[in-house]
Design brief:
- By secondary structure, the protein is an alpha/beta fold.
- Helix content is about 30%, strand content about 20%.
- Helix 1 (about 15-25) packs across helix 2 (about 30-40) and helix 10 runs parallel beside helix 11 (about 310-325).
- The two termini are about 30 Å apart.
- Bound molecules: S-adenosyl-L-homocysteine (SAH) and iron/sulfur cluster.
- The site of iron/sulfur cluster has 12 residues, from loops.
């Protein structure tokens, strides 16, 4: 059996500037041709290499003989009555992940996946039920934006936010996620400013520390979801490996730029983490930090043993945080009717 048979050609999408310069050299062209290819591919959010007429036909042909730019195929699209849409996107090997389109006035948020499934096993999350199938590559991460932008008619001139809040734990696929981030935020690349890109983590401390050392990095959100170490360990088993006190310590030393704040997400689960005492404990954890809290009532489902907190409980929790001078926002998840909401992403086999 030859391994090359039926293998998809390697993806052009996902190569960074240096790799494109090298590709140009391999094809006998000067390095700056690689830079032109880089901005041609990324700055228009368009995969059509043949439309890059500033590149010679010979060079374009050479590039395409080695690598084809590919975005994932739209396998399913579910339009929500609130205007958002959930996509199931299929990659070249047949695996699928989900991305969500959320328009909001003159800006749009794209929620993308970093892995197929997730290994972290949070007890309130649907994606956890899939287990981890594999990491996504840089090209597959960027390809989600290309697929949604193409389908929704979005381009580089629109105000687009990208959040790594789909499937998977982005800091457990660090290299591919950061490479995608650098291409997205590069002004000659996709041109999305770092302030509009957010990585959400369940609290992988080594990843947070690695991110802190990066020159260029997106904004960071931490999924806190509990008010004490014991509560967190029972909801998020990863918290046994990366304990709450150590997580808060690395958040305290995390470098913030200008008016940047850390975001803490708090999924509100009826009778589990939503009491007044929980709110006071959360305020204590965050005391003195430049932080804000997003309260997300749990998105329920038959597969989960939990119910969402009532809106009274959510409001009371927000009130306590406000009294303790912790800014807190209630985030009603979009797309619940099409299972596009936070933690509802699950591709059944
Ligand atoms: N793995 C990363 C990013 C993806 S999860 C993380 O955990 O941060 C994105 C957000 O959805 C997280 O804040 C998570 O706490 C939240 N979430 C998970 N399951 C949920 C559910 N059933 N209802 C509401 N939010 C949920
Ligand atoms: Fe993974 Fe995030 Fe879901 Fe936890 S909440 S299982 S880290 S996707």
């Amino acid at each position: 059996m030859t391994v090359t048979e039926n293998q998809p050609s390697p993806n052009l999408l996902g190569l960074d500037r240096a790799e494109m310069e090298r590709l140009a050299e391999e094809l006998g062209e000067p390095r700056y041709r690689g830079r032109q290819l880089f901005s041609g591919l990324y700055s228009h959010w368009d995969l059509n290499v043949d439309a890059m007429t500033d590149l010679s036909r010979r060079f374009r042909g050479g590039v395409l003989s080695q690598r084809q730019p590919a975005a994932p195929a739209i396998q399913e699209k579910h339009d929500s009555c609130d205007g958002s849409a959930r996509y199931v996107l299929r990659f070249a090997d047949g695996k699928a992940a989900e991305s969500v389109y959320m328009p909001d006035g003159n800006r749009t948020t794209l929620c993308i996946s970093s892995q197929v499934g997730c290994a972290v096993d949070c007890k309130f999350c649907f994606t956890a039920l899939m287990g981890l199938q594999r990491n996504l590559t840089t090209g597959e991460i960027l390809g989600q934006i290309y697929a949604l932008a193409h389908d929704q008619g979005l381009g580089p001139r629109q105000r687009v936010n990208v959040v790594f809040m789909g499937m998977g734990e982005p800091l457990l696929n660090f290299a591919a996620v950061m490479k995608a981030f650098r291409i997205m935020s590069d002004p000659q690349g996709m041109g999305i400013p770092w302030r509009r890109i957010t990585i959400s983590t369940s609290g992988v401390i080594p990843g947070i520390e690695q991110l802190a050392r990066e020159q260029l990095r997106p904004k960071l959100a931490i999924s806190l979801n509990a008010s004490s170490a014991g509560q967190r360990a029972s909801l998020m088993p990863l918290s046994r490996r990366y304990p709450l006190d150590q997580l808060m310590a690395s958040c305290r030393t995390y470098p913030l730029r200008g008016r940047e704040r850390l975001t803490f997400e708090y999924v509100m689960i009826d009778g589990i983490n939503d009491s007044g005492e929980d709110a006071i404990a959360v305020a204590r954890l965050l005391r003195g930090m430049r932080a804000k809290v997003n309260l997300i009532p749990l998105n329920p489902g038959e597969e989960l043993p939990f119910r969402p907190s009532s809106s009274n409980r959510v409001l009371a929790f927000q009130h306590v945080l406000a009294r303790e001078r912790v800014p807190a926002f209630i985030r009603i998840s979009r797309g619940q009717d099409v299972r596009a909401a936070c933690g509802q992403l699950l591709v059944r086999r």
